[in-house]
Write a structure and sequence with these properties.
Two copies of one chain form a homodimer. Chain A is an alpha/beta fold. Chain A contains 13 helices and twelve strands. The N and C termini of chain A lie far apart (71 Å). At the A-B interface, helix 4, helix 5, strand 2, helix 6 and helix 11 of A face helix 4, helix 5, strand 2, helix 6 and helix 11 of B. The first copy, chain A, binds a DNA duplex (30 and 30 nucleotides) through helix 2 and helix 4.
DNA sequence: CACCTCGATTGGATCGATCTAGGTCGATCG
DNA sequence: CGATCGACCTAGATCGATCCAATCGAGGTG
């Protein structure tokens, strides 16, 4: 059993030390070493210390594959990673993924990325699930008609969704989401506090539940403050020039003094129209976007934007996944977190 | 051995089928099933067909952990994932990670993310390496004084760097990089072709080898075209307002008609100054950035920008990693890829 | 017909950590 | 003083796929 007898202290041995190596060297059994790693409370302090010392000396770290095989877990969380769409400002994924990686590390998980395929949306999930390569999934794209959540539920695969199952009443999975309506309400109130009364909305098409939810935050806040929303709303595609056109029309027809947008992309369109018309963002016309993208941060006139608490979302997701995996009762089916407002020169 | 005899056809069985299950059901031995999966050539066509049929019927997929344990591989590639810095336009990581995930999938690898820690830069690498959790690493931050590449080399850990070992003559690891100087040369020549002769450079501080490399592309192209660079260069921090200030000073002192920048962040600063001075980007003054970030794409006046071929970088990195892992001789120590120019209204 | 070859197939051993059942030892108690 | 207890530790079995050496069987050869 005495493998790895001679090894250089500075380079990685050809084969890393095993639990048996540590046991032999420390003069204890394998199980004792295992306990030292996983259940230190079971060992007598002096034995624990001796084993730990040996572990440190040998630079031992449990072999992942062996542990995974025995325990039927992988400590990996699968995430389908789709790139940010070109031509839009949405870089939220980047920040979210990082938060997720951080939150995972804290509790001993790692994040495994796999590519998406629009033609076969569950293919990637299926492979990883059947080969028991991951313990759970984080699903980020729970938009209308997305079959993944339903499919995973049916497979009894543990997963948590970032995003509510909007339209789907039968969906019984666990989710974490950000209250977009509250974010827009925050933005709208902010503008009202600054003295604006004619605040326009530029959002997405009506078939987007997320867009309609965000819009409701604007409507609600306006009405709560006794302000009219008539003729002040526009619903367009999420591209820059659509936002620019909508802003131009609204300025001509309704003379708003402020714009609240469903995305930073649309807000960029508004800024473009203001620029063409020689109107100064923040001084002449206020603009607020959504997502606090890099564009909002880097744009010469800093764009005020609703910022999703992605760090908290990630922590909450990981917390929930742990609960699912340890078969603790999951107290709530959904968690809704409050966004904040990143205030900059544009408002 | 006949586990999983009765199972619902629609939901995942409590324990997935094993190779032994398939073997028994197909009336062959385990080894034969293994061969059907890994070395189909060894089987007689009719046997192969029968085994494949059974695999499909049972929905069998080899257990990753068991395979990993036996073969001492994981099919995982580790990538330290640091988030884009707030306040800069650099979203290249997002695109690169996606490309890497795609390229990995093609050859049966997956990407594992782990967090970075500036205080202990090799900690994450060390853990994954010692627990044999990944087969290789992709290292993206090979800047001056970064100990990771040297450390990994010393540990004999397989890895490929995205980025040249600039200053380090002794570094003998394998790398893939984008020729920034060629990209800037492309941008500069593009401006010269448009009739510009007074083209200014705004780059990073002198201690950045990447910045100096990019700058050399500007110098080279200017001189090749018989143009002077005197008084047309500025070196500043990579933040928007530094770019804006540098542009203002250069406009006052040297009256350039075009700017080439080491980053989109700096280019945004230039655009800011142009906006303040009521100068139209593209018509009055041309501007070119670097990285083709979302900002460049979304900015109302589309920003012409050097675009790194990150898809190709990823493919090349994966190709090299495969070569390293299969102990094929790696023919070249470094690969330099050519960027392209995304031309928009700003030039 | 015995012998040989070579492709196809088999069963046992193995990777390294963990689970399980059982064993050791000193302290406590009737 | 021997039985009992509990804290601590040990050894064998196990997870599932692959490696390895050995075997089987069909076809060819002298």
């Amino acid at each position: 059993m005495a493998r790895n007898e001679h090894r250089s202290g500075s380079t990685l041995p050809v084969t890393p030390p095993t639990l048996a190596d540590v046991a032999e060297r420390a003069g204890v059994s394998r199980q004792t070493v295992s306990n030292a790693v996983n259940n230190p409370d079971l060992l007598r302090p002096d034995t624990l210390e001796r084993v730990r010392q040996t572990i440190a000396e040998l630079g031992y770290s449990p072999n992942r594959a062996a542990r995974n095989l025995r325990t039927r877990t992988s400590s990996l969380i699968g995430l389908r990673f789709a790139p940010a769409q070109e031509g839009t400002a949405n870089a939220a994924m980047d920040r979210f993924v990082h938060s997720l990686v951080e939150a995972s590390e804290e509790v001993g998980y790692h994040v495994l990325l796999f590519p998406g395929d629009d033609e076969d949306p569950v293919g990637g999930y299926d492979n990883l699930l059947r080969s028991t390569a991951v313990d759970a999934f984080v699903v980020t794209d729970t938009y209308l008609g997305n079959p993944q959540a339903a499919w995973l539920t049916q497979q009894r695969a543990p997963f948590v969704a970032f995003g509510r199952p909007w339209e789907d009443d039968v969906a019984r999975h666990v989710w974490v989401d950000v209250d977009g309506a509250a974010g827009i309400a925050l933005a709208t109130q902010h503008l009202i506090d600054r003295g604006h009364t004619r605040i326009a909305w530029i959002g997405w098409r009506k078939d987007s539940p997320i867009g309609e939810d965000r819009r409701s935050g604007w409507v609600r806040t306006m009405h709560q403050n006794g302000l009219s929303t008539t003729g002040l709303a526009s619903r367009v595609e999420d591209v820059v020039h659509s936002g620019a056109e909508a802003a131009a029309v609204l300025l001509d027809e309704s003379a708003p003094t402020a714009f609240v947008c469903a995305s930073d992309t649309l807000a960029m369109g508004v800024l473009h129209t203001l620029w063409i018309r020689q109107l100064a963002p923040g001084r002449d016309i206020a603009v607020v976007g959504f997502d606090d993208s890099q564009v909002a941060q880097v744009y010469p006139v800093g764009l005020t934007s609703v910022r999703q608490p992605l760090e908290d979302v990630a922590v909450e997701i990981i917390r929930t996944i742990r609960a699912l995996l340890t078969h603790q009762p999951v107290e709530t089916r959904g968690v809704l977190l409050e966004p904040t407002l990143a205030i900059r020169e544009s408002s």
